[in-house]
Specification:
The structure holds 3 protein chains of 3 kinds.
Chain A (H helix, E strand, L loop, with lengths): L1 E7 L5 E8 L19 H9 L1 H7 L7 E8 L4 E7 L5 E7 L6 H4 L12 H8 L2 H4 L4 H23 L12 H14 L1
Antiparallel strand pairs in A: 1-2, 1-5, 3-4, 4-5
Chain B lengths: L2 E7 L6 E6 L25 H22 L12 E3 L4 E6 L5 E6 L7 H17 L17 H11 L1
Antiparallel strand pairs in B: 1-2, 1-5, 3-4, 4-5
Helix pairs in contact in B: 2-3
Chain C lengths: L2 H10 L7 H18 L4 H27 L7 H17 L4 E3 L7 E6 L16 H4 L5 H12 L2 E9 L8 E10 L10
Antiparallel strand pairs in C: 1-2, 2-4, 3-4
Helix pairs in contact in C: 1-4, 3-6
The chains are: A alpha+beta, B alpha+beta, C alpha+beta.
GO biological process, one term (chain C): macroautophagy
Keywords (chain C): Endoplasmic reticulum, ER-Golgi transport, Golgi apparatus, Transport
Organism (chain C): Penicillium antarcticum
């Protein structure tokens, strides 16, 4: 499983981006998306395209964690969202690795076979979290991850030198998000 | 008990930062900042001269007490009061060298605790903690703080 | 005064409590605003913080004496203990460690394990703040101001700060001299 995590300000400015892979089930924590290295913008594109759905979903209930809200079938990308009360949105794109069976069907992106060795993908897919992006276990893991990132986000936003709406450059925050990813996903 | 007058000197001691003077018995009220003092036995002088004398006295007395007391804990040493045939002078000094002096009649008990309370509950609360009041009261304006004066009046009564 | 007694005064002195985040955010805002006002001239910001602390210290000492009820310290060692175990304890609820005494007993270091002023803080990464700004410099001023009121002229500065990536937060305090009593004005 590969992840792309983005924080967007209430005015849709991207504040923070990070890509990482699963560390569960022997994963090495390196992202292996189905796009070629040169097409990483696809992640951003997919994430941002889910904003409309997010804006509808945010009124359905009062919860901050909105679970899985959107899917982009061509890339098998799933989007989970988390809303802070102040309107910042945390979006997590997760993309299961190529399963041997899906390699042929996912040929919409021909170059995708360039990414990720077969060995590592099968290994990652054996984990329960990675196996099914919509399973309750995955939802729970993502919720824990979101909550941890939220805590750290609050701390970072409390720094007197951080201004609302400014890109989060803090290396400390990045490390902590990476750690949270390692811990839960 | 009768309180004749009350002075506060800051660490520079050039001018008293607060003076309250009364010749009335405490039960019938006290007037603050009255310019003339006529405690029995005190000569009629301007307040200014009076306060200089008072300061000079307590300053010398304090130094004398410290010298005689030896160097060991001279910092802790201070005199509490002295008595003349007509009045009793009570003295309290904080470690920041703010000096509180009160002149009362002979019958009054030790006012050391009272002066300490004035410092803790009134002076610190109303004067020091007032952000608009300067830390150094120079130029003879004094504390000039209504809340402090009122509370002091209540406290002494 | 024994060290134990000093810690006890620090423990037992009751003070009004205030929310720690409020203090942290207030102080952080002040520093950030100063940085902005002085166009990130951090030397100047340090100076201003020190000055503000000095003015606070001159008042705070009275409050300190009134609340703790302690008398004058017999020597500078006792003063250091008093600062760490009573002063910082009642006002910031931390107890820095007193250490690194100079051989003449006129210089010591305060090591802060925990600094409530600097919670959440990350210095701006403009390449200079890390080397020039002493975020908690107000504390130096507070010590300078309050000790001056009790007849000690001191010099205080930070030598390291965890915010800068150092191991510890350390403040160096050195006694310059004891201030003699001012003489009363001459009678003319």
């Amino acid at each position: 499983m590969s992840y792309y995590f983005t924080i967007l300000s209430p005015t849709d400015t991207p504040l923070f981006n990070i890509a990482f892979g699963t560390s569960k089930g022997g994963g090495d924590g390196i992202a292996r998306f189905r796009f070629p290295e040169t097409a990483q913008y696809m992640n951003q594109f997919i994430i941002h395209s889910s904003l409309d759905i997010l804006e509808e979903a945010q009124w359905t209930n009062g919860a901050m964690y909105l679970k899985h809200i959107d899917t982009y079938p061509p890339a098998a990308a799933y989007i989970s969202a988390f809303l802070t009360p102040s309107g910042a949105r945390f979006l997590l794109l997760h993309q299961p690795p190529h399963l041997p069976s899906s390699t042929s069907t996912g040929s919409g992106l021909g170059s995708s076979s360039l990414l990720g060795s077969a060995g590592s993908t099968t290994r990652a897919s054996s984990s329960s979290v990675a196996a099914n992006p919509t399973s309750p276990q995955t939802e729970e893991a993502v919720r824990q991850f979101m909550n941890e990132v939220y805590e750290n986000y609050v701390k970072t936003a409390m720094s007197p030198f951080y201004k609302q709406g400014m890109e989060i450059k803090s290396p400390v925050f990045r490390t902590r998000v990476t750690a949270a990813g390692k811990k839960w996903l | 008990m009768v309180v004749y007058s009350f002075y506060i000197f800051d660490r520079h001691g050039k001018n008293p930062i607060f003076i309250a003077i009364t010749q009335l018995t405490v039960s019938s009220g006290m007037h603050l900042q009255t310019p003339l003092a006529t405690a029995p036995g005190l000569h009629l002088r301007s307040t200014d001269d009076d306060s200089k004398l008072v300061f000079g006295t307590v300053f010398s007395l304090r130094n004398m007490v410290r010298k005689l007391g030896g160097d060991d804990d001279r910092a802790l040493l201070s005199f509490v009061s002295f008595t003349t045939s007509q009045y009793k002078l009570h003295y309290y000094e904080t470690p920041t060298n703010t000096k509180f002096v009160m002149l009362t009649d002979l019958k009054s008990p030790s006012m050391r605790i009272a002066l300490q309370q004035i410092y803790i509950n009134l002076f610190v609360e109303y004067v020091v903690k007032n952000p608009l009041s300067p830390t150094e009261h120079t130029g003879g304006v004094g504390v000039n703080n209504e809340l402090f004066e009122q509370s002091l009046e209540q406290f002494v009564l | 005064m024994s060290a134990n007694k000093t810690s006890r005064i620090g423990e037992e002195t009751r003070v009004d409590k205030v929310n720690a985040e409020l203090v942290t955010l207030t102080y952080g805002t002040i520093v950030a605003q100063l940085c902005q006002d002085y166009d990130s001239d951090y030397q100047e910001v340090n100076k201003q913080l020190d000055k503000m602390g000095y003015n606070i210290g001159m008042r705070l000492i009275e409050d300190f004496l009134a609340k703790s009820g302690v008398g004058r310290c017999a020597n500078f060692k006792e003063t250091a203990d008093m600062i760490a175990k009573v002063g910082f304890k009642i006002f910031l609820n931390v107890t820095p460690t007193v250490t690194n005494w100079a051989s003449d007993n006129n210089q010591f270091s305060l090591i802060f394990e925990d600094n409530p002023l600097a919670d959440f803080v990350e210095l701006p990464d403009d390449g200079r703040a890390q080397d020039e700004l002493w975020f908690s410099n107000i504390l130096c001023g507070v010590l300078r101001g309050s000790l001056e009121m009790v007849q000690m002229q001191i010099e205080a500065h930070f030598v390291s700060d965890v915010l800068r990536g150092d191991e510890t937060t350390e403040m160096r305090v050195s006694l310059v001299r004891y201030i003699e009593d001012e003489m009363p004005p001459e009678e003319e």
